[in-house]
Amino acid sequence: MNFERNGSLFRYRLSLGVFIGGLIASGLTAFPLQMETALLNRWFEINGPVDPTSNLFPLRAFIYTVHYALHDTYQRFPFFGYGTDWLGFGHLVIAAFFILPFLDPIRYRSILHIGLLACAGVVVVALTAGPIRGIPFFWTLIDCSFGILGAIPLIYCLRLARGICLEDRKGC
């Protein structure tokens, strides 16, 4: 193994590790939603319905509404939180699938292609379901950014994997 391959492999694993870490962080934050929205309310000093003349009104109103809805729903129907528990678990499971290409970039690079399709799907679902569910457009853009930003390290890893493959002369 030469120095160039080691450097490429390091950059590959660093990039894919960041992607895996993002999935894990996203998954873990899906569990305590009510606590997180309460924290956002405190940060933005939201104590009740938001005054339309206030600074950052659309964002503050959305945070208040989401927190109120979660609080009210969880009190009346606590089983609804189970859906976001499964969302978080799904992120953790998806992250686990990327361990294989992390360990063997050549053999398991097809998982990176599937990951790119999933990133594209994030954008499609956000742009489709966001308006149907009444999600503010700025939040839909934030959701789209996860798919776009997630694709960047995957594309980079595919490029590096191709280079590693050519260096090994495996004819990948």
Describe this structure in words.
By secondary structure, the protein is mainly α. It contains seven helices and no strands. Helix 1 (3-29) packs antiparallel against helix 7 (137-168), helix 2 (33-43) packs antiparallel against helix 3 (57-76) and helix 6 (109-132) runs antiparallel to helix 7 (137-168). The longest helix has 32 residues, at 137-168.
Shape: elongated
Q: Count of DSSP helices?
A: 7
Structural class: mainly alpha
Strand coverage percent: under 5%
Q: Which key phrases capture this entry?
A:
172 residues, mainly alpha, 79% helix
How are the SSEs ordered, and which strands pair?
Elements: H1 3-29, H2 33-43, H3 57-76, H4 81-97, H5 99-103, H6 109-132, H7 137-168
Helix pairs in contact: 1-4, 1-7, 2-3, 6-7
Concise account of the structure shown:
The protein is mostly helical. The protein is built from 7 helices and no strands.
